[in-house]
Amino acid sequence: MSEHLRTALQLAAKGVPVLPLRVGKAPFGNCSACAKNACGGRPNMKQAGPCVCPRPCHAWAAATTDPGALTSPAWTAAWRQATAIAYHPAGIRLTVVDLDHADAIAWAQAHLPPTRTLPTTRGQHWLYAGTMPSSHGVRPGVDIKSRMAYARWLGPGTGTMTALPDAVRALAVKKPATARPAPHSLSVPALAGSGVCPHHTPAYLHRGLAMAEQRITAATSRVHATVYATFLAVLSRHGRCGCLTEAHTARLFAAAQAKGETARHCADAWANARTALGM
After folding, report:
1. Which end of the chain is more exposed for a tag (fewer CB within 10 A), N or C?
2. CA–CA separation, 136 vs 140, rounded Å?
3. Of the candidate ranges 48-52, 75-79, 133-137, 254-258, the one whose mean pLDDT is the lowest
4. Is the pLDDT confidence value at 250 over 90?
């Protein structure tokens, strides 16, 4: 039994829903039945618990306290490859304020009530008692992880835990979007006179989409900005030739939603990128 699995079982016995993380602090990829979110995301990523698929998938929603699931053959294989453990904060009534660097820590010390903390690779996690919607990039270097999110398990932390304050809840309140309403169809129309892909081979587009998905998945802070910049880059490269389809944009939206973005934010970011490019 791997050390990570042993720790995971100990946490599960205490009621902490856990899941394995691979290199890069990312969850293991979806199983073949759920590739590219084909199943709709258990369902539509609205509830926690072990996935019914043959192996862990759907990131936070795969977190479980079931020792039978954790020690099943599929889970055991994942734990052997795992480099870290994650947990679902809302599953134990917690909110994690993830502070990614020293400036973010200094801001929190000046604006948020003290609470239980623990060090991360580059910053700190501040733990508050209570749950709320998760939100990435609420300030430079500050993410909120609670419902429909996972956080890396780094230990119980030190200090007295404080009830979730309004100052943290207010960080996740988004300002009204100023972008034009997203169109019902997300396919990108070809410009007049185009329609023949200038990229020589379909592999060029597929490689570009894979790189875009990887960029979004690898984001550890400023996820909103990363999603928008990635959409902008894809549209500027592939949006005018007519080869970008709804299936392609769905892949990008799924990658963004796996990082905690809402469908509305994805649509707004896509619309903003199209507007910026004059599409």
Report:
1. N
2. 10
3. 48-52
4. no
The residues, any chain, with a CB within 8 Å of residue 224's CB and separated by 6 or more, are: 136, 137, 261, 265, 269
Query: How many alpha carbons lie under 13 Å from residue 198 in its C-beta half-sphere?
Result: 9
Q: Which of 2-6, 54-58, 148-152 has the lowest mean pLDDT?
A: 54-58
Tally DSSP H helices, then E strands, for the chain: 10, 10
The first and second tokens of residue 263, run together, are: 């469908």
Which of 58-62, 66-70, 150-154, 239-243 reaches the highest mean pLDDT? 150-154
- The pLDDT score that the predictor gives to residue 131 is 94
* Torsion angle defined by CA atoms of residues 257, 102, 92 and 164, in that order, rounded to the nearest 10 degrees: -100
CB-based burial label for 242 (10 Å; 0-12, 13-18, 19+): middle
Residue with tokens 């009204």: 176
- Cβ distance 50 to 64 under 8 Å? yes
How far, in Å, CA of 45 to CA of 63, rounded?
Answer: 12
Q: Return d(Cα 36, Cα 278) in angstroms, integer.
A: 29
Sign of the C-alpha dihedral computed for residues 83, 88, 93 and 99 taken in this order: positive
